[in-house]
Write a structure and sequence with these properties.
single chain, alpha/beta, Aconitase, domain 4, seven-stranded mixed beta sheet, 8 helices
Length: 207
């Protein structure tokens, strides 16, 4: 997955509260074990009616929606079942950040492990962004800041908090396993030091 440093994109505003993982990716699409192609099924029942016709008024069907990499959503985004396919579908759709007043814990963890930055922000910031659909925003993960771009100050800049480990993984473009693999030289060096202290003559395992 690609490192997350800065992101500039249009805002896809989904103001409805409690958008659950079944809305994000309906259960009938959970037959795959990879994320490839899941993006085309993201929000399938929201975007299209049973006949396959696009649902009128759905923000996901707006011609400005394709390519929008920042979702600003109503309260409690990603609630419901713990299916990782929801994060896979959004990542495959090209989403790189989600901003809401609350993001469900399991979904938030799944999102960050798949290269999506979850940002929990104060209601005044989220509401201001929801009132500016398809405006451009910029996110800087190093500085933990969000601000409007494109020359239009449609919402106030703000800072956000994120736990240091998740931030490090996103900046490096790795999941938890990737982070551990990157620490292997330090782990082996520590093992060697401990073996020397103990006077152990057995070679340290080196995969």
């Amino acid at each position: 997955m690609q490192p997350f440093t800065t992101l500039r994109s249009r805002i896809l505003a989904l103001p409805e509260a409690h958008i659950d993982t079944d809305r994000i990716i309906p259960a009938r699409f959970l037959t795959t074990t990879t994320s490839d192609g899941l993006g085309r099924h993201a929000f399938a029942d929201w975007r299209r009616m049973r006949e396959g016709v696009e649902r009128p008024g759905c923000p996901l069907n707006d011609p400005r929606a394709p390519g929008a990499a920042i979702i600003v959503a109503g309260h409690n985004f990603g609630c419901g079942s713990s299916r990782e396919h929801a994060a896979w579908a959004l990542a495959d759709l090209g989403v790189r950040a989600i901003i809401s007043t609350e993001i469900a814990d399991i979904f938030r963890a799944n999102a960050s492990r798949n290269g999506i930055l979850p940002i929990v922000a104060a209601p005044e910031h989220v509401h201001a962004m929801l009132d500016a659909p398809f405006a451009e925003a910029e996110i800087d993960l190093s500085r933990r800041e969000v601000w409007p771009s494109g020359g239009h100050a449609l919402f106030a800049p703000f800072r956000f908090t994120i736990d240091p480990f998740t931030r490090r993984c996103l900046l490096d473009g790795v999941d938890h396993l990737g982070y551990l693999v990157a620490q292997l030289p330090r782990i082996l060096a520590s093992e060697r030091r401990e073996a020397m202290k103990a006077g152990c003559s057995t070679p340290v395992h080196n995969p």
